[in-house]
Structure formats: C-alpha cells, structure tokens
Amino acid sequence: MARPPTAAQRRVIDAADPVTGQLKGTDAQLAALVARGLAFRHPRPPHDHFLTPAGHRIREGADVQPPPEPAAPTAAGAFAARVGGEEQAPESGPARAREVHSAWQGLLELRRMTNPDGATDRPCAWERTHLVQAAALALEAAGHRPSGAEPADGYRVRATPQPEAVAVYEAAAEARRACATTLERAGWQVGEHTEPRTGNRYLLASPRRT
C-alpha cells in the first residue's frame, strides 16, 4: 500500500482550492504530489497544479490511498470510467460516488481551462480523443448504472467506426431516453437509431462543438 502523504504534503493538499483543487506549494512539494498521483500539472502556462480525484479524496478525509496506474485514466487523474460490460460487478457505495464526483468536477475544470472561451457546457479536446471514457463518465456522474458482464439493464458505451461518435446501448426505452438527456446536458449531440440486423435501439452520441 502506498505511504500516506507527509505532514507538509498534507498541508498543501488541505489548503487546495475547495472548488477547483488548485494547489500552492514549493516546486518540490508539488512534484512529489504529482509523483504520488495526488496532483497533476496543467500543460498550459502558467502550469498550475491541481488535485487529482485521489488527492480530493485525501483532502475530504476518505481513508483511501491512490490507486495503481489505471488502464483507462481520465483527464483528472487515476480513475477508470465504467463503460458497461466489465467482467467484475461495478463498484458502488460512497467511496465510488466520491471518486466519480471528483472525476467529473475535474473534467469540468479541464473544460474551463482548455476550451478557448472557457466554456464548461461542451466537451473539450481531451474528451474528443477519449470518447468512450468521456461519455461513460458523464453517464455515471449523473447516476446512471453501467451494465455488468451479462447484457441486462444498465448502459454500455462502445466505440463506432464513425469519427467522434460513440454508441450507447440501454435495453429499457425509458432509461435510454434518460441517458440521451444526460448526454445532451453534458454537451453531446444525441440521436436514436436502430441496428438493421438485430432491430436493437441505441444512441449515437458526438461531442458538441458549439
């Protein structure tokens, strides 16, 4: 298990901006937090540092440690969005809810910092290169439940041959409409389609540009 942050690092974490997670500290302190996966350095000048979801959890007092390097990290740090269909049952409970909330807030902050006009109501460049993870995070953050390994109730987000488009599968029509509403509110363009061979209904979603 990873060592807890030092007293000096903890003071830097506790002093982070409660909304954006922006950090202030010495170069050595900030570099150490980045190395631990508790902070990330913004790529654009002035290269400020911000808490990752793991850092937010430390600040909020959750008794958890930074997870190992994930297979599918989000922009905000060490976090894997639930795309549906995972072999293991999706995690649930307060810890997962905090993790999802922190990741979504981090993504909104990334939109603010990287969209040319600072808009948070439409996807940013990172989301356009991580379509499946971005759409899944928007759904999970809004309270939608991903499906398990067996195709039952719950959403599944999958890549498509179309550029900048993902398919969202949800068996129940009402739940499918709710997913569409969530994605539209998160800045995605959504249409409902039917697979010619199976007759299954699904959503085709693309990040909105304006």
UniProtKB/TrEMBL annotation:
Residues 72-81 have a biased composition (Low complexity). Residues 41-95, 190-210 are annotated as: Disordered. This is Uncharacterized protein. The lineage of its organism: Bacteria, Bacillati, Actinomycetota, Actinomycetes, Kitasatosporales.
